Amino acid sequence: MFDQLKQLKQLKELQDKLSQEKIEIEKEGVRLIMNGKMEVEEIYLNPKLEKEKQEKIIKECFNEGIKKIQMSAAKMFQF
Which residue of 11, 61, 62, 76 is surrounded by the most CB atoms within 10 Å? Predict the structure, then answer.
């Protein structure tokens, strides 16, 4: 039982550490910032780009950000 409590404590510490991470992705002047909980914190647009192009870039940045957070989480949970 104490081993389970110890593991839960370690898991909570890893979750806290991951939630403090920030991921920033920038493409063609469009920038997206996400935290380790996969929440979008900020989006900066490039007014020189057309709306459709910005939408495509935001989607790409979001997907890349999720992948980076997942990779970071995987590295942390390998203990």
Answer: 61
Q: How many CB atoms within 10 Å of residue 71?
A: 10
Q: How many CB atoms lie within 10 A of CB 22?
A: 12
Amino acid at 76: M
| Greater model confidence, 76 or 63 | 63
Long-range contact set of residues 56-60: C-beta below 8 Å, sequence gap at least 24:
57/27, 57/28, 57/30, 58/30, 58/32, 60/27
User: How far apart are alpha carbons 78 and 52 in whole angstroms?
Assistant: 40
Provide the whole-model pTM. 0.76
What CATH number is given to the structural domain containing 43?
3.30.1310.10
